[in-house]
Design brief:
Strand content: 25-35%
Structural class: alpha/beta
Helix content: 25-40%
Order of helices and strands: EHHHEEEHEHEHHEEHEHEHHEEEEEEEE
Number of strands: 18
Strand order of the largest sheet: 9-8-7-6-5-2-1-10
Largest sheet: 8 strands, parallel
Radius of gyration: 21 Å
Shape: globular
CATH class of the largest domain: Alpha Beta
Distance between the termini: 37 Å
CATH architecture of the largest domain: Alpha-Beta Barrel
Bound molecules: beta-D-galactopyranose
């Protein structure tokens, strides 16, 4: 769990912006809720010196001092590069400098590297992609500093099948998600079937949360957050943490919702059923519980129902609505509710010995 600057700041990102957001992560309660990584995306790079060492551009004074500041807040420091000669925004990539860059990052105290394919397609064939990622993984390893290795190549070459074997701790399964509900839901609901590739330390990554960025309404934001938690996805907030509304903060920090994303069993969810734009997803949780999301992708509110036998469970079950933070009592054979347009009802069910309820 953490934060990435890309969708809010793009190539305007600077030392000052990163520090302000790191500090806001603590002050706002995001850190207390579990958010830890402060990740700089593209556009921090300057030039290489005569010996080939990479330096930040003039929006960043000193990367080691920035890392020290982030660490002083009890947070972790993330950075970004490409296996190609240039990043997607045209800044210096790591091609031909992999070990040198990994050593530099380790010296700066980096804890996380997002490695974005970009111009690598100009110097490598698709069948060399795995070797290009493995090369950086080996380089990181040889520094002796643990770093989360985040693969970003937009889900090409069925990356979920080999991401872990090249040292990936997470791998993007989709193209860039930035945009409105159509894009977020298109990518999010496409994730079905990838559950078996997600295990502890190696996760499918459907990209950055769009909560608080202004393109999704309230229900649509709950949809992304709920689906990402069902998917056991990495949660990287993408908004300006220094100016969050109370609504944004509540969505990003609901403890019961975050707990199911971070469930110790680490199982990714799956689609239970689909009826046109109505989708029901489930995710097994520790303690014999199950998370269920009733998603309505249609243009008006719809009553949706989940019979417990579709989950392979028998009632009675105890229900809890995680967004309303309300107990639903003992439910006998099914649960139903009205789900708003583009919205979700997210419930946790667990075995109950009670006899009453519907
Ligand atoms: C894209 C990547 C984005 C962002 C951007 C920066 O390729 O998917 O997440 O990192 O490059 O230029």
């Amino acid at each position: 769990m953490g934060w990435n600057d890309w969708y809010q700041y793009g190539c305007q990102v600077s030392d000052q912006i990163v520090r302000a957001n790191a500090s806001a992560m603590v002050k706002s309660g995001m850190k207390a809720a579990g958010y830890t990584y402060v990740n700089i995306d593209d556009c921090w790079q300057g030039q290489r010196d005569a010996k080939g060492f990479i330096h930040p551009n003039d929006r960043f004074a000193n990367m080691k001092e920035l890392g020290d500041y982030i660490h002083s807040l009890g947070l972790k420091f993330g950075i970004y590069s490409s296996p190609g000669p240039k990043t997607c925004a045209g800044y210096e990539g790591s091609y031909g400098h992999e070990q040198q860059d990994a050593d530099t990052y380790a010296g700066w105290g980096v804890d996380f590297l997002k490695y974005d394919w970009c111009s690598a397609s100009k110097v490598y064939q698709p069948d060399q992609m795995q070797a290009a990622y493995r090369k950086m993984y080996e380089a990181i390893r040889s520094t002796g500093r643990p770093m989360v290795f985040s693969l970003c190549q937009y889900g090409l070459e069925t990356v979920w099948r080999w991401g872990a074997s090249v040292g990936g701790n997470m791998w993007r399964t989709t193209d860039d998600i930035g945009g409105d509900y159509n894009r977020v839901s298109l990518f999010g609901f496409q994730q079905n079937g990838l559950a078996k590739f997600a295990v502890h330390g190696h996760w499918n990554d459907p990209d950055i949360l769009q909560v608080g960025l202004g393109h999704l309404n309230h229900e649509e934001q709950l949809t992304q957050m709920s689906l990402w938690c069902l998917l056991a996805a990495p949660l990287l907030a993408g908004n300006d943490l220094t100016k969050m509304t109370e609504e944004t903060l509540q969505i990003l920090t609901n403890p019961e919702v975050l707990a199911v994303d971070q469930d110790p069993d680490g199982v990714q969810g799956y689609r239970v059923s689909q009826e046109g734009p109505l989708e029901i997803w489930a995710k097994p949780l520790s303690g014999n519980a199950i998370l269920v999301g009733l998603f309505n992708r249609s243009e008006s509110a719809v009553r949706m129902e989940i019979p417990f036998k579709a989950l392979g469970m028998n009632g009675p079950l105890q229900g809890r609505d995680l967004w309303q933070r309300k107990d639903l009592g003992v439910l006998q054979e099914h649960f139903f509710d009205e789900v708003p347009r583009h919205g979700v009802v997210l419930i946790k069910l667990k075995a109950s010995s009670g006899k009453s309820g519907s």
